[in-house]
Amino acid sequence: MKNQNVFLIAGQGTQYYHMGKSLYQSDEFFQYWMDEQDYLFKSIAGYSVLADLHDSSKNKAMPYQNIMTSHAAIFMIEYALGLSLMNQGIVPECLLGISLGELVAFTLANSITLAAALETVYQESLIIQRSCPPCKMYVIFETMASFYSHSSLYLFTELVAETNQSQLVISCTSSRSCVLEQFFIDQKIRFIELPINYGFHTCWLEPAKDSLCELYSKLTVLPGMFPVLSARECRTVEIDDMNKVDLLWRRIRQPFYVEKSLRSLIGQCNESLWFDISPNSVFNTQCKQIDLGDRKKIYSFLSPFKD
């Protein structure tokens, strides 16, 4: 049986300054599509994403938290890398997207045009920045049962994601972050702060709902070339004129489940090669922590330690 190629596409939290720069300098096809997207984005927003992404005064250790460029930079990197793989004959039979990664997946599948997707990315950033309260986001190394056993967690934070059975992503408002971090320390809960300033997948995104849904309603969508599996639904989703607003809103509002999605993917694409096109190879990292059997081969290309 022929192996099926699957692209794994992540979202906010995977970004860092200078991501993809080595590939940009060495791969003319990748560079062309990064430049093309930057040109299109600049015509929409009036500024360059690459100028900020490749800013020589910034280093990879600095948090890349400016949503007005980081949101677009993640999209551009993943889209250009996906096209580069296809240009080399690695064509996906399926795409798995998380959050912003779902929008990348729909664009790679040609359900949404590149110009419309970049407009959406820019407007999303603008609306969220203007409408939503500042938030913090953390990876914590705890189970769901542990999360609900700590009232300081489930009462004052919201679940963003269950990445595996012993690792969660949670969010809180910035005003509560100092108290929360002290709670982590007191309870000896290991945590990592992500470079995200807004509460994606939580109630703190609700102030942007009406404006975002109006934005999504204007999108033209077409039948896709490849099926898209959502880490939110843990199943294949199809976008059309009837469901586009609800689907695109839920993609950034509802929690997502990485391990469950990967197991669902195994069920749909049993003999498959996985290609992690996220900027920090987050799927590759997760797969090492999850027993998916020895049939899975995953390729990754970018990380802050390689670029």
Summarize the SSE layout with pairings.
Layout: E1 4-9, H1 21-26, H2 28-45, H3 49-53, H4 67-87, E2 94-97, H5 100-108, H6 114-131, E3 135-140, H7 144-149, H8 151-154, E4 158-164, E5 167-173, H9 177-186, E6 191-193, H10 209-217, E7 228-230, E8 235-237, H11 244-253, E9 256-257, H12 258-268, E10 272-276, H13 282-289, E11 297-300
Helix pairs in contact: 2-4, 2-6, 4-5, 4-6, 6-10, 10-11
Pfam family, one: Acyl_transf_1
GO molecular function: transferase activity
Domain Malonyl-CoA:ACP transacylase (MAT): 8-305
State the shape: globular
Low-confidence stretches: none
Structural class: alpha/beta
Counted up, domains total 2
At the first level of CATH, the class of the largest domain is Alpha Beta
By DSSP (H or I, 4+ residues per run), the number of helices equals: 13
Average residue-wise pLDDT: 93
Oligomeric form of this entry? single chain
At the fourth level of CATH, the homologous superfamily of the largest domain is Malonyl-Coenzyme A Acyl Carrier Protein, domain 2
Strand numbers in spatial order across the main sheet: 8-7-2-1-10-11
Strand content: 15-25%
CATH fold-level name of the largest domain:
Malonyl-Coenzyme A Acyl Carrier Protein, domain 2
Distance between the termini: 35 Å
Q: Got a strand count?
A: 11
Helix content: 40-55%
Could you give the order of the helices and strands?
EHHHHEHHEHHEEHEHEEHEHEHE
Query: Which architecture of the largest domain would the CATH scheme give at its second level?
Result: 3-Layer(aba) Sandwich
Q: Mind summarizing the main beta sheet?
A: 6 strands, mixed
If you compute it from the alpha carbons, what radius of gyration comes out, rounded to the nearest whole angstrom?
18 Å
